């Protein structure tokens, strides 16, 4: 299950009873890897006022309750560490690579100083250390969907003239620094979520993504492939519309997680036949936390059905 914002944290950005129940239900439903919603490494890095936070040691106890319950029910638990950048709507002043708003409905962000950038790098490192203390099995860095790290990567949002701006390789500098900082405290599986295609004339296209990704080969374990989000533009979506991006990134030698409106068994089999290592199903798992068990039943793998639910899956 990919990270999907739940907007259900307390006003002080702590875990509520909803979160362990929500995630553990998917573990009980047979989902192998569950990646927790975008969890902010800084207060101004929240997407909304009800996002989870991980910028304080006080957050660890609640987050560990999610991990414990997921583990008890057979799941593997990841967490997506995030900073919203110019897409922050939490009430804090947004910070971004350049003073360019996401749209006229979003506030004007402050252009980040070098000190601000250094603070963000440290915040990702400290967030990763707290995630380790909470017991997560995997950490994902959110570098997609128009949030801060994607903004630095994209020429649409990054107009800087220092070492964090300019050409594509320089625009990847912040992500490289974040990865290096996290690796100071985390030796476990590390994933990066990317927007492989930004659907913008002045944004990154697949060929650009394929050009900068080799910079992180050997530094991370998995690339989680998505697209869009750096600007409020419409783009075509259809069942499996992002799978070709994951297939192309796989050819660079990465382990990939692919998906995008994958809701039918036939599309799942097609994705796996393309060599995609892991498949994410978001909307489907929101509608049906036991979707994986239904797939198991359809494949005749009744041994995967938890014993308490066997009667419900028999004809």
Helicity range: 25-40%
N-to-C terminal Cα separation, in Å? Answer: 28 Å
Number of helices: 12
- Beta percentage is 5-15%
Strand-and-helix sequence, N→C? HEHEEEHEHHHEHEHEHEHHH
Please tally the β strands and state the result.
Answer: 9
Task: Evaluate the radius of gyration.
Answer: 19 Å
Structure description:
The chain is α/β, with parallel strands linked by helices. It contains twelve helices and nine strands. It has helices spanning 18-28, 60-72, 114-134, 148-153, 168-171, 173-183, 206-212, 243-250, 265-273, 283-287, 291-298, 310-313, and strands at residues 33-40, 76-82, 95-96, 110-111, 138-143, 190-195, 222-226, 255-259, 278-280. Strand 8, helix 9 (265-273) and strand 9 form a beta-alpha-beta unit.
List the helices and strands and how they pair.
Layout lengths: L17 H11 L4 E8 L19 H13 L3 E7 L12 E2 L13 E2 L2 H21 L3 E6 L4 H6 L14 H4 L1 H11 L6 E6 L10 H7 L9 E5 L16 H8 L4 E5 L5 H9 L4 E3 L2 H5 L3 H8 L11 H4 L2
Parallel strand pairs: 1-2, 2-5, 3-4, 5-6, 6-7, 7-8, 8-9
Helix pairs in contact: 1-2, 2-3, 3-6
